[in-house]
Amino acid sequence: MNPPTVIGAPVDSGQRQPGCLMGPAAYRVAGLHEILAALGHPALDRGDLALPDTLPACAPPNPALDQLPETLAWTALIRDAVTAELDLGRLPIVLGGDHALALGSVAGAAAHAARIGRPLFLLWLDAHSDFHTPISSISGNLHGTPLAYAAGRAGFAPFPPFPAPIPAERICLFGIRSVDPAEQRALAEYDIAVNDMRVLDEQGIAAPLRAFLQRVAAENGMLHVSLDVDFLDPAIAPAVGTTVPGGATFREAHLVCEMIHETGLMTSLDLVELNPALDERGRTARLMVDLLGSLMGRKVFDRPTRSFT
User: Fold this and answer.
1) C-beta of residue 258 within 8 angstroms of C-beta of residue 303
2) What is the pLDDT of residue 307?
3) Where exactly are the structural domains of the chain?
4) Which of 69, 121, 273, 289 has the least CB density, counted as fewest CB within 10 Å?
5) 177: helix, strand or coil
6) What do you get for the CA distance between the two ends of the chain, in Å?
7) CB neighbours of 241 closer than 8 A, spacing ≥ 6?
8) Contact predicate 128/34, CB 8 Å
9) How would you write 150-193 as a 3-class SS string?
10) Are 172 and 122 in contact (CB under 8 A)?
């Protein structure tokens, strides 16, 4: 595993619920650096990215779009930061921030993968498919668009063209349980593996994930993992503005993360949608850091007993 680099991305422009900009600080306070060091992976922390004083001038293609100039600027910043770390042979861990940050992080990983001639695979751990375009979005919230951008859907101007769109067969949606009709129609045109909670209830967590990871390994692929807080059930992870009942349990989420680690395939990672303003005494931030530990090699029997009193 490459040495990790932490990149703070306090993106709050992809949706209208304030608070995600505090996510990077909450992860650090919850012991992110300590758990990485304890596992033998001390991280280089690049600090938090910051928007420039001057934002891009743009004409929104959809009048409903919210904070488009800010999101365009974040996309460029994060894309360049992720590409730079991958070029250095490091594993970028992008701390969010809402899921709009993946417009930049996945683009950065794709640019690097194309340059070195390796296929990029994308594992989307999320309650939502995020398969809208800026034109199709009714809410205008751009955190609902990054997967469509990565897959090369049309309708993303004024965003720059995605560098080397990811073929559908290299994308896996995992834990999905909230997809609106427009996204369902769009997904039907792509051969993306959609492992919704019905699939996971019927087949279990391990089999669909193992099948996808085996494809990554067979093609010597790079793997970008995008982990949204709402992948988890809100009963254990309340600190997110888009809660959907019926998400992954504590044990299921750790199994997913341990399986990813055991392959050694993960080359970049997003931790997104943590809103500390909605948390309960930091429990969601601590759980996400705990899952990061599993992604980086901690086993379930290593869990310390923890008191919340």
Assistant:
1) no
2) 57
3) 4-300
4) 69
5) coil
6) 36
7) 15, 17, 19, 20, 273, 275, 278
8) no
9) HHCCCCCCCCCCCCCCCCHHHEEEEEECECCHHHHHHHCCCCCE
10) yes
Confidence at residue 97, expressed as pLDDT on a 0 to 100 scale: 93
11: helix, strand or coil: coil
Helix (H, G, I), strand (E, B) or coil at 226: strand
**241's tokens:** 């503005």
Phi-psi region of 178 (alpha: psi -120 to 50; beta: other; left: phi over 0): beta
Could you list the active site residues? 99, 126, 128, 130, 143, 228, 230, 273
| Residue listed under structure tokens 């194309």 | 114
> For 111-140, what is the mean pLDDT?
95
Look up the CATH architecture of domain 4-300: 3-Layer(aba) Sandwich (3.40)
What one-letter code names the amino acid at 176? I
Tell me the per-residue pLDDT of 26-76, one tens digit each, with 9 for 90 and over: 999 999 999 999 999 999 999 999 999 999 889 888 999 999 999 999 999
The pTM assigned to this predicted structure is 0.95
Instruction: Round to whole Å and give the CA distance between 256 and 295.
Output: 8
User: Tokens 């067979």 appear where?
Assistant: 218
